[in-house]
Amino acid sequence: MQATIKNTVRFDGVGLHSGRPVRMVISPASAGYGIWFKRTDIRFGDAMVPARWDAVDRSPLCTRIRNAAGVEVSTIEHVMAALAGCGIHNALIEIDGPEVPILDGSAAPFVDAILGRGIRRLDTPVMAIKVDKTVTVETDSGWARLSPADTFTMSFHIDFTDAAIGSQDKRLVLSNGTFVRELCDSRTFCRQADVDAMRANGLALGGTLENAVVVDGDKVLSPGGLRHSDEPVRHKMLDALGDLALAGAPILGHYTGHRAGHSMTNMLLHALFNTPGALRLVEVDGADAARLPGVGVVPQDMPAVA
């Protein structure tokens, strides 16, 4: 069955790029509602922004959505990953600014709060996207692919010159709470040189060593070091789950990312929806449900760091 959050939950923080204080509230929604953002600071006009693949305004640094009136919400990938990873299909997210709070740079605070409030099952079946034909997109920097599979699985490869990151590969079956246990606490990461360049261009103004893993060559500058030896590739997988959640339904298929990022994953969703025969909607039965993220997850699945 579809699900929503049982009780409203509030988050206060700052935007990673804007540095502006922001308050965000996630509230329950009815079956079939989907995920919508509402800009509560917009007094006139359309303040509702759909969390959907065709509303994405592509950016290499984050996932940003925009409605027809030009109202935006950015850096939505971590909260979207948390909702998908907890099996939440319907929610209203009210936010008083243009950027989701970065919190600790991972999805763990969102997951912890959602599970703490509880999940309510709704009396409507889940429809899932079954990948029937392989689709691939590529750029000069990498490629991404969705291919047929009976459950939702993900493989990711990254390759950075900084020795603190280097080359990392990971493959996971993202069903039955794996996201919560394995990925949700992995933080966004960047190179010190990239931080300097972003700040020179008015970005990453809310970034700190506490809400991002910053590396410089073979050194991890953030206090306490890495939460996992392969935290960077885990975070890339977290981002990909959040970006794929914009498909509007859980995916039954295998996602492969090779040096992929936000824009490439959105390009992949465009290719999936625009390729004849590449997908079909299927009603999830009991056997399929166990193959989806979030099914059976409990607060005890949360990593200790959260």
From TrEMBL:
Its EC number is 3.5.1.108. Belongs to the LpxC family. GO terms for biological process: lipid A biosynthetic process. Pathway: Glycolipid biosynthesis; lipid IV(A) biosynthesis; lipid IV(A) from (3R)-3-hydroxytetradecanoyl-[acyl-carrier-protein] and UDP-N-acetyl-alpha-D-glucosamine: step 2/6. Catalyzes the hydrolysis of UDP-3-O-myristoyl-N-acetylglucosamine to form UDP-3-O-myristoylglucosamine and acetate, the committed step in lipid A biosynthesis. It catalyses: a UDP-3-O-[(3R)-3-hydroxyacyl]-N-acetyl-alpha-D-glucosamine + H2O = a UDP-3-O-[(3R)-3-hydroxyacyl]-alpha-D-glucosamine + acetate. Zn(2+) binds at H78, H235, D239. Its cofactor is Zn(2+). Pfam families: LpxC. This is UDP-3-O-acyl-N-acetylglucosamine deacetylase. Keywords: Hydrolase, Lipid A biosynthesis, Lipid biosynthesis, Lipid metabolism, Metal-binding, Zinc. GO terms for molecular function: metal ion binding; UDP-3-O-acyl-N-acetylglucosamine deacetylase activity. GO terms for cellular component: membrane. The active site is at H262. It comes from Marinovum algicola.
